Amino acid sequence: MTPADSPSSTSAPVPSLGERPSDSLLDRLQGQRQRPPRIRDRHITLAHGSGGRAMRDLIADVFVGAFDNPLLAPLADQAQLDLGALAAQGDRLAITTDTFVVDPIEFPGGDIGCLAVYGTVNDLAVGGAIPRYLSCGVILEEGLPVETLRRIVRSMALAAQRAGVAIVTGDTKVVPRGSADKIFINTTGVGAIAPQYRLGSDQIRPGDAVLVSGPIGDHGAAILVARGELGLETDIVSDCQPLHELTAAILAACPHTRALRDATRGGVATVLNEFAIDAGVAIRLEEAALPVRPAVAGLCEILGFDPLYLANEGTLVAVVPSGDAAAVLAAMATCPAGAGARQIGTVSETPVGLVTVRTGFGTERILDLLTGDQLPRIC
Predict the structure, then answer these.
(1) Beta bridge pairs of residue 375
(2) What value does the mean pLDDT of the chain take?
(3) How do 316-320 and 259-262 pair as beta strands?
(4) Alpha-carbon distance 55 to 61, whole Å?
(5) What domains appear along the chain, each with residue ranges and CATH number?
(6) How far apart are CA 352 and CA 147, in angstroms?
(7) Which site in 44, 146, 173, 287 is 20 to 30 Å from 253, CA atoms measured?
(8) Packing angle of the helix pair 294-303, 218-226 (nearest 10 deg)
């Protein structure tokens, strides 16, 4: 894809992504034909990345129909964003990028498409930003079924609509069979941060409360089962979801929230270790307070995994002043993504840089940084 955004756009609301693309936009890709072409190939070929008619037809048929919006319409080589609209929402520009290589590309509760949207939206949201725009870079392996690609792109469009962002520019590449694993997606996100929010591990203080927005380990466990290598059948689904509404509720209840982080690769344990090291504090967790679904706990017990290290794709960790913890938990509970929120620990002065867990036996164990890969290819 090589679309971009309108330099004259001044509308603050993000355009809807669920409507049929305009005839003018499709015509531009189709050489003035009145209807989008249906590509006849059942699988992606190298011709679809050649820059010729096959590539134009693929973009028009699969991508434009799903992603079309006024900012995308010029179909130039860059997106020209309205700085006035962004400045009206904050005094700082937030930008983040992530690449998604999950295996399998479709799994219970989601797929690589919605994962690519939510993962980047959530990275913006936990910084206090209002997510606004995404770019989308796609690497396709020769032989990928076109219908699979359609499902993933439709999933991305629906996820973007749900998260209130527009996909405004992108790129498509095709590599020979065996040079990739079906499909890789890179998304870059842009948003704005309001001046009253200053989030970061450097804000964390002893005495603060550590909260989590819901059950942990669901995504990592769902991916493990979906690979089919264990021969297990469970009802575990990924927690893949957007967190922008949840972060907005947290910040409204507590504008001086210390830090937020979505617990993706490395799970909650990695986030808390990074907080403790960067802030020069200790974090103590209560094992009894950790929200872990019975199916996830059972899977971890069988395989020797610790759910605190399993990836999440719709769960965040929040550190707030202890006096605001109850109000923040109440606000989180009003959002679907925060329905299972609870306090799991507190921040203390020492031992600096360590995270510990108080077990059901009254002992403490150290929750160190993960060494090696507990579960590869989870996002």
Answers:
(1) none
(2) 90
(3) antiparallel
(4) 10
(5) 23-193 (3.30.1330.10), 201-366 (3.90.650.10)
(6) 52
(7) 287
(8) 60
Q: What is the pLDDT of residues 82-109, one digit of tens each?
A: 999 999 999 999 999 999 999 999 999 9
| 175-179: Cβ within 8 A, 24+ apart | 175/49, 175/139, 175/140, 175/141, 175/142, 176/46, 176/141, 176/142, 177/141, 177/142, 177/143, 178/141, 179/141, 179/142
* Structure-block tokens of residue 334: 């009003």
Q: Are 253 and 327 in contact (CB under 8 A)?
A: yes
Model pTM? 0.89
CA distance 261 to 19: 33
Encoded amino acid at 221, one letter: A
Distance CA 257, CA 5 (A): 34
Q: Which of 128, 114, 138 is nearest to 219 (CA)?
A: 114
Question: What is the mean predicted confidence (pLDDT) over 209-236?
Answer: 92
What contacts 321, CB < 8 A, 6 or more positions away?
205, 207, 208, 209, 254, 256, 258
